[in-house]
Design brief:
Layout: E1 12-15, E2 18-24, E3 44-48, E4 64-73, E5 77-83, E6 88-94, E7 97-104, E8 109-116, E9 119-128, E10 153-158, E11 161-174, E12 177-188, E13 194-202, E14 205-214, E15 218-228, E16 242-248, E17 251-257, E18 262-265, E19 268-271, E20 274-275, E21 278-282, H1 296-308, E22 313-316, H2 323-332, E23 335-339, H3 355-372, E24 378-385, H4 392-408, E25 413-418, E26 432-436, H5 448-461, E27 469-473, H6 492-507, E28 514-517, E29 523-524, E30 541-542, H7 555-564
Parallel strand pairs: 21-22, 21-28, 22-23, 23-24, 24-25, 25-26, 26-27
Antiparallel strand pairs: 1-10, 2-3, 2-4, 4-9, 5-8, 5-10, 6-7, 6-9, 11-12, 12-15, 13-14, 13-16, 16-17, 18-19, 19-20, 29-30
Helix pairs in contact: 1-2, 3-4, 6-7
Bound molecules: alpha-D-galactopyranuronic acid.
Alpha-D-galactopyranuronic acid binds near residues 386 and 436.
Length: about 575
């Protein structure tokens, strides 16, 4: 399942998951030798979805790989091939013809092919996981360089006129009412106009009916505005969701939405007008056995563990995570921070001005917002993590990305995470400032309190002292099972003590609106490449998880849980402790 609910009851959707033919192209000769027309005989097999690095003997391969499967059509059909996520570069070929190219890793892309004949068709995908200076992420990044088709591939059979897109946006006009704008885009794949009966339903109740003339070969868009009353708002205590369904002749599309407001006022984040104090963790969607091809079942477990420790929020570090995960957050009333994979700690400022890099960032942001626009849990769109925000290049890139986000969605907060809180020149550009700071770990010499006092002064100087502040990363490594009588570096004890001290300080600072511990679970790190940046990663893992990679709790988990679930701590300055 892609979602926790069915998106199509009428449309014929089939997963192309399973074992695909597979071959590495170490010397990158496949294009020249036209493997998209004659797939090599010496091929192996690879599960889809999966990261190839989790299979035997393929652990450290970064580069080009080719996949092949076959599609069997019982009748002539219009088809939509939907790739939910392929890491890096992807070129897709059907029966030897290039359908198109996508760069990304964590967002879907699709190809619609009309009039495909009955019978068997060969589908080939060339992927390239190579990270370079202008890929996103770039070649220096603190997670394992996985490759592969990491989320499902779907084949959908489309009628002559189908629903291409269903979008709902709204503005709350009172506590329980909203002005709603529904947009339905129809796609016609035939040469003549066609009249199509269109019906819209909210929670199964008909709310609109009309006959639409879909123009030949192209898209027809319809906008419907309505005022809705009697709505129940989405919040942590009652995460009310509404299902919206469009039916156009023999095609349908369902999505879900929740109604709420999110705004900032005088250093506070307000959800439905009430102050929100955030208690969270950073979560990579990664596991040693599955890599980034994270199974749905484990998502439920991750969320159970996260909620058990008293969190009301998760930061999706550092890329768009599965739609299924977002559905779970919507259903459980957990607030979410979503971001694109610009992991900038080692990006030279000049590289932020590379037009290819900028274009890729814009496309990723665009695709993330398009995919996830309806999720009420997402309150924050984050445009970058730890780039050199002391530089004019970072300033320009921020402006560009903020402009894009605001043009697509004015209903959420635009945010970022800075690693230069004391020297940042971008502070007043955003709705909320996230600080990543490793006091007690990398920066033992400048402690949190000192950093915060310089930062708060700098905010005043930059006209940013009305902007809410979150501690989006802090923590230290603790190797699971290494505990003793003293808090030594890398022990569970040291990690727990560091987090406990940091949390007490942050929670007693009235200028801070919440915390995201780095990180939820230990994650595989990248050590074998030519970049020796992460040589301190014992076991080849980033060990700052408060649970280990198999989700076993460390001492830090219990310590953070005690703090996050204690309503009586006298120093706590936040207002709503869940
Ligand atoms: C950075 C980064 C994280 C992680 C962390 C660490 O803040 O944003 O992805 O790499 O440092 O563990 O050092």
């Amino acid at each position: 399942m892609i979602r926790t609910f069915q998106q199509h009851l009428l449309r014929d959707c089939r997963f192309l998951n399973g074992l695909w033919d597979f071959v590495f192209d170490k010397d990158n000769i496949g294009l020249e030798q036209q493997w998209y027309k004659s797939f090599p005989d010496r091929s192996d097999q690879m599960p889809v979805p999966a990261c190839w690095n989790n299979e035997l003997g393929k652990y450290d391969y970064e580069g080009v790989a080719w996949y092949r499967t076959f599609i069997n059509l019982e009748k002539d059909s219009h088809i939509r091939l939907l790739f939910h996520a392929v890491l890096g570069h992807a070129d897709v070929y059907l029966d030897g013809n290039h359908l198109g190219y996508h760069f990304g890793g964590y967002t879907p892309f699709q190809f619609v092919v009309p009039h495909v004949s009955t019978g068997i068709h060969e589908l080939i995908v060339r992927t390239d996981s190579t990270l370079t200076r202008n890929t996103i992420p770039t070649h220096v990044v603190d997670w394992f360089h996985y490759g592969g088709i990491i989320r499902p591939v779907e084949l959908q059979l489309l009628p002559d006129v189908s629903i291409d897109k269903l979008t709902l946006t709204y503005k709350m006009t009172a506590e329980t009412s909203a002005n709603v704008e529904l947009k339905v885009k129809l796609l016609s794949l035939i040469d003549c106009e066609q009249e199509v009966p269109l019906a819209l339903y909210r929670d199964g109740q008909l709310i609109y009916e009309h006959k639409v003339v879909a123009s030949a070969q192209g898209k027809t868009e319809l906008t419907i505005t309505q005022s809705w009353d009697g709505l129940v708002r989405w919040d942590a205590d009652n995460p009310k969701l509404y299902s919206i369904r469009a039916v156009a002749s023999s095609d349908d599309h369902t999505d879900r939405i929740g109604f709420r407001t999110i705004e900032v006022q005088n250093k506070r984040i307000l959800l439905n007008g009430k102050e929100l104090y955030l208690q969270g963790v950073n979560r990579h969607e990664e596991h040693p056995e599955w890599g980034f091809a994270f199974p749905n079942k484990l998502m439920t477990k991750d969320l159970d563990i996260i909620m058990e420790m008293g969190c009301n929020t998760v930061r999706g570090s550092h890329y768009p995570q599965s739609e299924y995960w977002l559905d779970l957050l919507d259903e459980r009333g957990i607030v979410y921070w979503s971001e694109i994979p610009i992991w900038g700690a080692s990006i030279p400022a000049a590289d932020l001005a590379d037009p290819i890099f900028i274009q890729r960032a814009i496309t990723m942001m665009d695709e993330m917002i398009d995919r996830d626009l309806h999720h009420p849990s997402i309150l924050f769109w984050s445009v970058h993590n730890e780039i050199d925000t002391r530089s004019k290049e970072a300033y320009e890139l921020s402006l560009e990305l903020i402009k894009l986000v605001r043009s697509k969605d004015q209903s959420r907060l635009v945010v970022y995470a800075t690693m230069h809180p004391m020297y940042d020149i971008c502070l007043n550009l955003f709705d909320v400032i996230g600080i990543n700071y490793y006091g007690g770990w990398y920066f033992g010499h400048v402690e949190f309190a000192q950093m915060l006092s310089v930062f708060h002064e700098r905010c005043k100087e930059y006209g940013a002292d009305h902007i809410p502040v979150l501690l989006t990363e802090f923590g230290g490594a603790g190797i699971y099972g290494d505990s003793g009588w003293e808090p030594r570096l890398f022990s569970e004890d040291y990690q727990a003590e560091l987090l406990s001290n940091a949390l007490k300080l942050f929670r007693s600072d009235a200028n801070i609106s919440g915390t995201y511990v780095w990180q939820f679970a230990d994650t595989r790190a990248e050590l074998h490449g030519p970049m020796p940046h992460f040589r301190d990663r014992a076991r080849s893992f980033n060990n700052k998880g408060i649970v280990n990679e198999y989700r076993k709790p460390k001492l830090a988990y219990r310590v953070v849980k005690n703090i996050y679930t204690d309503n009586s701590d006298p120093y706590f300055m936040g207002s709503t402790l869940k």
